[in-house]
Amino acid sequence: MGANILIVEDEEPLTTLLRYNLEAEGYEVDAVARGDDADTRLKETTPDLIVLDWMLPGLSGIELCRRLRARPQTQTLPIIMLTARGEESERVRGLATGADDYIVKPFSVPELLARVRALLRRASPERVALVLTIGDLELDREKKRVSRAGRPVDLGPTEFRLLEYLMERPGRVFSRAQLLDGVWGSDVYIDERTVDVHVGRLRKALNRGHATDPIRTVRGTGYSLDDLFGKPGRKASHTMQKNEARGVADFGSGARENATDAMELAASKSLCEDADNINEDLTDVQGRQAVPRKC
Ligand code: CA
Fold first, then answer.
1. Which of 58, 182, 195, 209 could be disulfide-bonded to 176 (CB atoms 3.0-4.6 Å)?
2. CA 56 to ligand 1 center in whole angstroms
3. pLDDT by position in tens, the chain (length 295)
4. Alpha-carbon distance 104 to 91, whole Å?
5. Which of 51, 176, 188, 181 lies closest to 110, judged by CA?
6. 269: which residues sit within 8 A by CB, 6+ positions away?
7. Which residues have CB under 8 Å from 157's CB, separation 6+?
8. CATH fit for domain 4-125, picks 3.40.50.2300, 3.30.70.3270, 3.40.640.10, 3.40.50.150
9. Ligand 1 centroid to residue 257 C-alpha, Å
10. 276 CA distance to ligand 1 centroid (A)?
């Protein structure tokens, strides 16, 4: 079972977006919109991590954070603070109050997810698997080793991170921009074609002497680690070419996948800044008017 995460945030579209993306990562998500309600809730149950907004009705995020740190049962509870302000003094104040991490709006969802993962790994390392396995592929995060069918695969550091990122979310399709954000970091400017180069290298290293390619190219979208890779009943003649053809067929088939694509598209955009676009995307996906954003 995934870790429990409580979102304390009064901007409903942001809560919806965070909930969607955290649940897609396998977390159990709960949300409250008021600081005082969160305080009451946290006296009864303790989640594994809180995403806490600074400006809240009822009780401010800062005050709630201070109260949580004063109670023994929530003293070490991982807290990520969200705020619209990015000044260094605010950041220092947030961390001084006892937050473990601090993220400034607008932020990218992949960046928040990476911080959630890092914080959970630090707080409860047993929750995050050290060894990821899909099909005959095995990735050891601690030893930084990859093997396929029991034989070691030699990867550069970027290819290792890229494979780790894809293996953490099998089946999900990532755009080049999302991979740049998640693997290289959002503050680095790199041409999107760089992703193709590294995927090419990763494939070459993984597929040496093997008939099947675990990485799918989804034309017009990006890349994905095949979640059916290595599943019983899979034909051995499932080659790279067929894999790519299947990627094309997969893309756009079924309303749910379209919804996922649109939500991921929305997720990849900065919040607040692109609030209108996100709302349009959400409206398309859900077939109803999304709540207007206040930032
Ligand atoms: Ca707020």
1. 195
2. 5
3. 478 999 999 999 999 999 999 998 888 899 999 999 999 999 988 898 999 999 899 999 999 999 999 988 888 889 999 987 666 676 667 677 788 888 888 888 988 999 998 888 887 655 566 788 888 999 998 889 999 999 999 999 999 999 998 988 777 788 898 898 888 876 677 888 999 999 999 999 999 988 899 999 988 889 999 877 766 655 433 343 444 333 333 333 333 333 343 443 344 333 333 333 333 333 333 333 333 333 3
4. 9
5. 181
6. 108, 277, 278
7. none
8. 3.40.50.2300
9. 31
10. 18
In CATH, what class is 131-225? Answer: mainly alpha
State CA 190 to chain mean position distance.
20
Measure 30 CA to ligand 1 centroid, in angstroms.
17
The alpha carbon of 6 and the centre of ligand 1 are apart by a number of angstroms equal to: 15
CA of 55 to the centre of ligand 1 (A): 4
| Helix, strand, coil fractions of the chain, as percent rounded to 5 | 45, 15, 35
Report the SS3 class of residue 260.
helix
Domain boundaries, the chain: 4-125, 131-225, 233-295
